[in-house]
Design a protein that fits this description.
Blueprint (H helix, E strand, L loop, with lengths): L5 E4 L8 E7 L3 H8 E3 L10 E9 L4 E11 L10 E7 L2 H13 L3 E2 L4 H8 L5 H12 L3 H12 L1 H25 L6 H24 L1 H9 L1 E7 L5 H11 L3 E3 L11 E5 L2 E5 L2 H5 L4 H13 L5 E7 L6 H10 L4 E6 L9 H8 L4 E3 L8 H12 L15 H22 L4 H19 L5 H8 L7
Parallel strand pairs: 1-7, 8-11, 8-12, 12-13, 13-14
Antiparallel strand pairs: 1-2, 2-6, 3-4, 4-5, 5-6, 9-10, 10-11
The chain binds guanosine-5'-diphosphate and zinc ion.
């Protein structure tokens, strides 16, 4: 394919030791040569090498900057096009000035995600891989990063392509039948088609089962810490934050602007809801009352319900138990270092079959147990043990569900002894829906919209 030459600053905005201006397209190296003076012309050097030199304002021969320029020739590049990467001293002004120079020589400013989009359009990666790139940028924990990386490697794409192939074989056997109607093998054909789609259906189910875990790894588990005043909510929050191997907040430059707080609990990213309230000791419950805190809990996927073991249960505790009903809840029985005044039997009676972890945040006890309980609640085998393809992307999940529905229709059509070409229509639809995951049947509009979510320069 033929595209114009694009350029953008690929490093995050702000100050840094270096900034990189990326240029991709047929003109990339030539544009570089109009600005660069070094030992050799960039057009003369070998691919995948880096060169020291200076950039000049063309015509005026004014030295602008000291640079290192990488020359990367198609097709072994990120975009599969000729590329140069200009490394300049960090700083907003410097990088911007170089970008302006490059643009003045005929490159066009890249749209967000356009480099990755070119990798897709030039056939280097498929759509699910491109989405994986975006997930890698946004990953909050190592584990989330690994899931995204597998997607970038094309593991999910490979599986989807295999499933499509299977459906296609089924469809093909029907085509043969339609082309030779005198060869009346309807029953045999249908049998074969059904076997194929059963197998595909089972694998789609397995993939969908990973969806919840995948989404948690990707977006974090929305977690609310609730409990009466003074039971230890802030202490719990601080403990989680301190203990977390990585506290990750959203990376600037991605399109999600809201800054949320994440803690890493055994590889599971918890997205803490309403932590500001807890921080100011004016927590959710204190501030807005139990009734309204129900509202605030709506988005919670996990509730850590904290009690003070040193005090008898109160009406307010009971109200909080009611508020947490229907949510995944873990009870944190805190202040175990003090005399026990809370009636465990009463608690069990009120709350039912919910895991209870006893802790003392003062003496730093029970914290590992709590973290174990949290991660095992959502990843029974432990996050690290899982080596399968996770489906984490909402778009992929929706398409898998659609394909599953189409297959269900094909099955019932087959069972109702409908003509085999009717069944074929449903199977073909499933085939197309799966194709949309990897971008083979995705409409242009969708593709544009997806890539526009990337940050500039990616
Ligand atoms: P919150 O109001 O629920 O956020 O409770 P805080 O975390 O602010 O704790 C209230 C008080 O209880 C503070 O003085 C803490 O130091 C104390 N506290 C927290 N956890 C424990 C514990 O496990 N044992 C004891 N003895 N005191 C604790
Ligand atoms: Zn507090």
């Amino acid at each position: 394919m033929e595209f114009d030459t694009i350029a953008a600053i690929s490093t995050p905005p702000g100050e840094g030791a270096i900034a990189i201006i990326r240029v991709s397209g047929d003109q990339a190296v030539e544009i570089g040569d109009r600005l660069y003076r070094g030992k050799n012309k960039l057009q003369a050097v070998e691919s995948h090498t880096i060169h020291y030199g200076h950039l000049y304002q063309p015509e005026q021969e004014v030295k602008i900057e000291e640079v290192m320029v990488s020359v990367l020739r198609a097709p072994r590049t990120f975009t599969r096009e000729d590329m140069i990467e200009i490394n300049v001293h960090g700083g907003v002004v410097s990088a911007d000035r170089i970008l302006q120079l490059v643009l003045s020589q005929g490159a066009r400013l890249a749209e967000p995600g356009e480099f990755t989009k070119r990798a897709f359009l030039n056939g280097r990666i498929d759509l699910s891989q491109a989405e994986g790139v975006m997930d890698m940028i946004r990953a909050k924990t190592d584990r989330a990063m690994n899931v995204a990386m597998k997607q970038v490697e094309g593991r999910l794409a490979g599986q989807i392509k295999r499933l499509r192939q299977q459906l296609l074989e089924g469809i093909a056997s029907v085509e043969v039948n339609i082309d030779y109607p005198e060869y009346d093998a309807d029953a045999v054909t249908l049998q074969h088609l059904l076997e194929q789609i059963h197998a595909v259906d089972r694998e789609i189910d397995e993939l969908l089962q990973t969806a919840k875990q995948g989404r948690i790894l990707r977006e974090g588990l929305a977690t609310a810490i609730i409990g009466r005043p003074n039971v230890g909510k802030s202490s719990l929050l601080n403990t989680l934050v301190q203990d977390a191997r990585a506290i990750v907040t959203d990376i600037p430059g991605t399109t999600r602007d809201v800054l949320e707080e994440y803690v890493n609990v055994n590889g599971v990213p918890l997205r803490l809801i309403d932590t500001a309230g807890i921080r100011e000791t004016e927590d959710v419950v204190e501030r807005i009352g139990v009734e309204r805190s129900r509202q605030a809990l709506q988005d919670a996927e996990l509730i850590l319900l904290v009690f003070n073991a040193n005090e008898p249960l109160t009406k307010e505790d009971q109200a909080l138990i009611e508020a947490s009903r229907g949510f995944e809840t873990i009870v944190v029985l805190n202040k175990m270092d003090l005399e026990r005044r809370l009636d465990r039997e009463q608690l069990t009676e009120w709350i039912g079959d919910v895991p209870v972890i006893t802790t003392s945040f003062l003496q730093e006890e029970g914290i590992n147990e709590l973290e174990q309980a949290i991660s095992q609640r959502f990843f029974h085998e432990g996050v690290e043990a899982v080596e399968m393809n996770y489906v984490s992307n909402t778009r992929h999940i929706a398409l898998l569900n659609q394909a599953k529905a189409s297959i269900a229709e094909a099955k019932s059509a087959a069972e109702a002894m409908m003509p085999v070409d009717m069944v074929q229509i449903d199977v073909t639809r499933a085939w197309e829906q799966l194709g949309e995951i990897v971008g083979e049947t995705a409409p242009d509009q969708l593709i544009d919209q997806l890539f526009s979510q990337f940050c500039l320069g990616k």
